[in-house]
Amino acid sequence: MKGQPAPPALVLVLSLDHCGQVTQVHVEHSTGVAAFDQSGIDAAKTWRLSPEIQDGKPVPSRVRVPIQFQDDSAAAAAAAAAAPSAAAAGGKGKLPSVEAMYAGWKRMQVPKAALNADGTLPGYLPDPQPMRGGFDEILRQLKSERRLESQEGGVDRYVSDDVFDISNWDVFERGFLFSPAIVRMRLVSDGEKAFWVTSSICAARAPDGDCAKLEEFLRVSAKPQTPKPPPPSPPPGLRDGKR
User: Fold this and answer.
1) What is this structure's pTM?
2) Cα 87 from Cα 235, distance rounded (Å)
3) How far is Cα of residue 164 from the mean position of the Cα atoms in its chain?
4) What pLDDT does 162 receive?
5) Cα–Cα distances in Å, from 9 out to 43, 47, 227, 230?
6) 8-state DSSP, 153
7) Residue 241: how many other CB atoms lie within 10 Å
8) CA-wise closest residue to 229 among 77, 47, 84
9) What does the DSSP assignment read for 90-109?
């Protein structure tokens, strides 16, 4: 019934084939309400997600997806609405714990962002959580831990597309006034909407003036962005530090 407390989140583990089609659905964390669980299962069976990539080829994999319902009248809609977020849960096919998902969800939370008059957000919004480490250290991590998505125009793009860690890293190693540099765009949420924030780092060998050119480049080149729906939240008990 409307007005009743929302049930705990449903956490599903989905088995995917090499095409990203859901072949099996396992309930890892039940809401305690059979109708809610079934609506989430039925919705998940219709999804087509991003399969794991190994050696440049898609392979069968598994992903864990949380679904937070609002009330029983909205159960089916909430499950269907979770599909776009779940579709981002590809990448290296890791299967994080519920606690790890909560940590990722918490990292996504940022202060409220004010909308422009037309309902958009500025294309360039500084990330309140800057990248940690130096240029060379971050580059090594990207090459060993992230997926290389593209190499175009002198820019190597690495991605992380777990459900609570959707980020792009553009590596400008040469050919630009501010090279070498790394620019990260990260999807975050203020609880009402999701949007992209940006952080950057120049190599120690890059002149200070070049880093200033990078900042200006980011501000000028970024187009206004349209807010996205926020990701599903973790189970209430987990948000309170309880299992």
Assistant:
1) 0.61
2) 20
3) 4
4) 66
5) 15, 19, 24, 15
6) T
7) 8
8) 84
9) -TT-----HHHHHHHHHHHB
CA angle, 229 then 6 then 238, to 5°:
80
Dig out the tokens for 129 from the structure.
């959580």
Stronger pLDDT, 97 or 59, i.e. the higher one: 59
Query: Contact at 8 Å (CB) between 58 and 10?
Result: no
pLDDT tens string 136-169 = 999 999 999 898 989 988 899 999 866 667 899 9
Question: Where in the chain are the domains?
Answer: 10-95, 135-221
Task: Output the six-digit token pair for 179.
Answer: 């090279």
CB-based contact 2:71 (threshold 8 Å): yes
d(CA 97, CA 92): 15
CA–CA separation, 167 and 198 (whole Å): 10
Chain centroid offset of residue 82 CA: 13
Q: Which amino acid is at 8?
A: P
3-state secondary structure of 116: coil
